[in-house]
Amino acid sequence: MDQWNVAWIDQYMNEAALHGAAAIVTYSLEIGYGSYSDDMINMQDLCAKDVIPCVSISRNHYKELSKAIKEGKNKATLEVDNVMEPDKGTIYNVVGKIKGKSSDQQIIVSGHYAVYFNGFQDDSCAISLILSMAKAMKDSEYTPENDIVFVCHGSKEWGAIGSQFDWTTGAWEMINNAHPDWAGKTIAMLNFELPAVYDGAKQGEIQCDPDFAPLVKEFVENSGILAAPENDIYPDGFNSTSVDTFCLEDGGSYRASGVPHSVNIPGFDKEKDKNWNRDRYHTVADDKDTYNADVMTTNLKTFGTLAIYVDQTPALKLDMTATCDDLGEALNEDLAKAAGADTEAYKAASKELRASVDSLNKKIDDVNSRYEKAVSDGASEDELTAIRSEGKALNKTTLETFKYIQDHFIGIILTSDMVIKHIPYQSNIELISDVTAALEKDVLSNEKEQNGALDLAGQINVRAEFGYYSFSPKTCKASEESLLEDSNKGNLFWGTGKGSKLADTKDATRSLLKKSAAGEKGSYSEEIEIYNKALKAQQKEMTKTMEAETKAMKELADSLKAKI
Fold first, then answer.
1. Is Coiled coil one of the keywords (predicted)?
2. Is 3.40.720.10 the CATH number for 94-312?
C-alpha cells in the first residue's frame, strides 16, 4: 500500500471489500510512509465508514508471509484483539488556566496528547512544551492581562467514523460544542506540533493564518523581546515572513470558528536525515532519538514571548488586508470572464473592502500607539485601563471580521489546503481546458513534459480524479461521499461549508485509461464532449461562488464602515 503517492487506506479497504475480502492486511511500500526501516508499522486514520477490519504489518512481516505463500503454505489464522464501539468512547480535552487581570479575553496555548505508538515528537513534546510554558509563567509570577488557557487536545489523530475530516475532532468539539463562547473572546491560539524536530533550517519560522502574519512580522522585527535561537541552532535568526497554515493540526478547527492562530514549523518534510514525515510519522520510530533540546528551548522561548507580546498589546493586530490580497490574487480575470463572472464588480468590492480594512487597521494602530506612549510616559493605571478597554471593544470587531472571512471566503481543497472558495473551480477549469487541448492534439500522455491528457486528468478535483487510475468507480464514489456535504451532511466537522462541487469527468478519464491500456489511438470526441460539459458546470459554479464572494465583500465593507 502506498498512502504517500497513490491513495489513502479507505480506497484500498473499500476496493478489497468490493471484491469479497473479509479483512485486509497492509504494509507500507518503501517509497511511502514508514520508510525508516522494514520493521516499521505505519498507522493512520481511516477517513471512511467501518467496512472491514484493517490490520497494519511491517515490510518484514510481509516478506515472511510472502515466503510462506511461495512455499505452499496458503492457510493462516489472523487474530485481531480490537473492538470498535462507535459513539461509546470518551476522550477528554484537559484544560488549565492562568487567570488574567480580566477574563473578557483569552489566549490559548495548545498541543494534542492523542498519539500513535510513543508519539514522542507527535505530540508528546508539545504537551511538555505547553506545561513548561505554564510553569515558567507561574514561576516568574507573570500576571497576564488576559486569561491564558492551556489545552491538551484529545481526538486529534482520529475521532470520527465515515468522514474524510476525521482528525482534529477533539479541537473541533471544543470550540463548537464544549466552549463555543471561546470563539468570540480568544484573541490568539498558539498551537504546537513536533516542536523538538530539527530540520536543518538556517532560519526559524512561524506558521500562521495570513491575517496574523503582520503581527508576527512586527514581533520578529520590532518587538525587541524575541530571544536569539538557542545555541545558534538557527544561525540566521528568525524569518519575519511567516508561512501559511494548513489543515494537519488543531488550529484549523479553531480558525474555522474565528480564532486566529499560529503554530511552530514542524519541519517534518525537509530533507534532513532523509524525511521525518516519511520515515517516522505514526510509527514506533517517533521516539526520543530525534529530540533536539535547542529547537525545543527555542520554541518554548519564542512562543512564550509571543504569548506575552499578544497579551500586552491592547488592540489585536490582525491585518485583514492579507485576505484582500488573497482575494485579488485568486482572480484569474480571463478565466472568470469566460465563465460569465462579473469581474469588475468583484474588483470593485475588493477595493471597497480594502478601504474599510485599512480604516480598521488605522484604529488598531492608533490604540496601540497611544498605549505604548502612555506606558512610556508613566501614565496612571486608570489611563492605561481606559486604553485597554478601547482595545477590547475594537477586538470584538476584529474577531467578528476574522470570523466573517472564514465563513464567506475561505474554503478547503479536499482536506488539505485553505484557499479562497472559488479557487477549486478555477483550477478545474484550467485543467479540463488543458486536457481537452491535449486530446485535440492527440497527446494522451507525455512522460517527459507531463502535459498529455492523462498526465493532467489525474489532477482534476485536486487529484481526487487520480483514484480512478487505480480503483473502481464504486470505491472512488465511497471516498467522494465521505468528503462532500451533500452526501455526508453533519459529519464534516471542520470541513463544514468549506468544500466545492467536484467536476464530473470520471467517465471520460476512465475511457481514456482504457484506451491507453489497449493501445488505442484516434478519435476522442466522446471524451471531449464529457470534459466540455463538466467545464461548463464548473464555470457555472465558479460564477455563483464569485457572486457570493462579491456580495460578502460588500457586506463586510459596509459592516466595518458602520462600526468604525
1. yes
2. no
